[in-house]
From TrEMBL:
This is DUF4340 domain-containing protein. It comes from the Bacteria. The keyword RNA-binding does not apply. Residues 1-20 form the signal peptide. Residues 30-50, 427-438 have a biased composition (Acidic residues). The keyword Signal applies. Keywords: Signal. It comes from Blautia caccae. Residues 25-57, 405-438 are annotated as: Disordered.
Length: 438
């Protein structure tokens, strides 16, 4: 076949193809489903609209420690009265006007519902009296971005869940208290004292933030609360001891080299060089109530509960620390108690020093806790933890919170005697001077 004939054949085939779909009257037949190529439909258009709607301009704090966040265009702060959430369109099934929550207690992993979907939350009673659930606070939430949730979650510092990276988060919030990797996730923990913590979870592959667990069970400050400008008599009467008494129930501790008798004023700790970290501390403490303080010295941090024994609310410095602890892992502060029991001491020597004091033990996977209780309710105690393998004292904790401060309960001055090292007294030849050092 010549080149001309080939061209003619191609023209004919093309003409046949173009006219094949026409009927004799010139009308085009209905196409088969498999031949149809659809243009973007309404669903696709809706998706594009959704993408445009997923930009919400909200004003949030730059500090994670303020525990603000937004869901779409609504800003929330933890803790907040449950009624505020109800006003924002949320419902809580258990809030039936009958169920109540004990004072200073909480319910975790409760469900709040709205038209946009449900949310996992913690319900907290921050009051000193029993309260109906409807009168309590939302103190914790779990936010998680994903395909099944079209809501937009934003955190302080312009951090957006599902978009912001690990580097962006650490740049906004600083280095976390703890960070580790497990399976498909990277976990960051930011602690701001007791009951105030944020756990942020990232996908290990793209390091994108997709989950945030926020908890702030700290009572909001009342600007109308009357705060005493005078130093309470209880604080003025306190005098630090200079030695260990013969009664372990007096709760005298040598902490970071300084003697305290618990409860001890926060001002005693600051006098000895400890600094109050504002992000993890209350600024005032109500009368007859407890609060929280975060103290730092020489790179070590102490999270402590405080009580206010005065008749009015007081600044944090005039409240009393009721618990201290030290260990070789987290709060690496030297702790010495009754008869010189201290961190790194052998279990055998520690038990010899306890003498006739009655104690209870609790077996754990990594060791044994010795509890010396001061009351039947077991609220006030000394705890000594002994490492299972090393057989050494690895942690010491004291907690003492009497209802009132009598003269006997406030520290009294004592001269420190010429003492002999406890290990030498009891022939503890194997006492390690560097026990627990990493």
């Amino acid at each position: 076949m010549t080149g001309l004939k080939k061209k003619l054949c191609m023209v004919c085939l093309l003409a046949a193809f173009l006219t094949a779909g026409c009927t004799q009257n010139g009308q085009e037949p209905a196409p088969e489903d498999e031949d149809v190529m659809t243009l973007p439909d309404e669903e696709q258009a809706d998706e594009e609209t959704k993408e445009e709607q997923k930009e919400y301009s909200v004003e949030l704090s730059d500090k994670l420690s303020d525990f603000q966040f937004s869901i779409n265009e609504t800003v929330y702060t933890l803790p907040a009265k449950l009624q505020e959430w109800k006003n924002a369109g949320w419902t809580y099934e258990k809030d039936n006007g009958k169920k109540a929550l004990d004072p200073e207690s909480f319910l975790e992993s409760e469900t709040l519902d709205s038209e946009g979907g449900s949310l996992t939350a913690d319900i907290v009673n921050l009051d000193g009296e029993k309260k109906l659930l409807g009168e309590c606070y939302v103190g914790g939430v779990q936010l998680e971005s994903g395909e099944d949730d079209s809501r937009v979650y934003q955190l302080p510092g312009k951090i957006r869940m599902g978009i912001s990276t690990l580097d962006e988060v650490t740049e906004a919030y600083g280095m976390p208290t703890d960070q580790y990797e497990e399976k498909d996730n990277i976990y960051l923990t930011y602690e701001y004292g007791i009951y105030k913590q944020a756990d942020l979870v990232f996908d290990v592959q793209d390091e994108i933030l997709y989950k945030a667990v926020l908890k702030n069970y700290r009572e909001p400050e009342d600007s109308n609360e009357e705060v005493s400008k005078e130093t309470p008599a209880e604080v003025l009467s306190y005098q630090a001891p200079g030695a260990f008494p013969e009664d372990i129930m007096e709760f005298v501790v040598r902490y970071g080299g300084d003697f305290y008798k618990l409860p001890a004023p926060v001002s005693e700790f600051t006098k000895n060089g400890w600094e109050i970290l504002e992000d993890g501390s209350d600024s005032i403490v109500k009368s007859g109530r407890h609060g929280y303080v975060t103290l730092e010295r020489d790179g070590q941090t102490l999270y402590a509960v405080v009580n206010n024994y005065a008749d009015l609310a007081v600044p944090l410095e005039n409240s009393f620390v009721i618990s201290v602890h030290g260990d070789f892992d987290v709060t690496k502060v030297s702790v010495e108690i009754y008869r010189g029991i201290t961190l790194g001491m052998s279990e055998e020597t520690m038990k010899a020093l306890l003498g006739d004091n009655v104690y209870e033990t609790e077996e754990l996977d990594n060791g044994v806790s010795y509890f010396i209780y001061a009351d039947e309710a077991k609220q006030n105690y000394t705890r000594i933890f002994v490492d299972k393998d090393l057989k050494l004292v690895r942690e010491i904790e004291l907690s003492n919170s009497p209802d009132t401060l009598s003269a006997a309960a406030i520290g009294t001055p004592k001269e420190e005697p010429d003492s002999v090292d406890a290990a030498a007294m009891y022939g503890d030849d194997d006492f390690p001077s560097d026990a627990g050092e990493e």
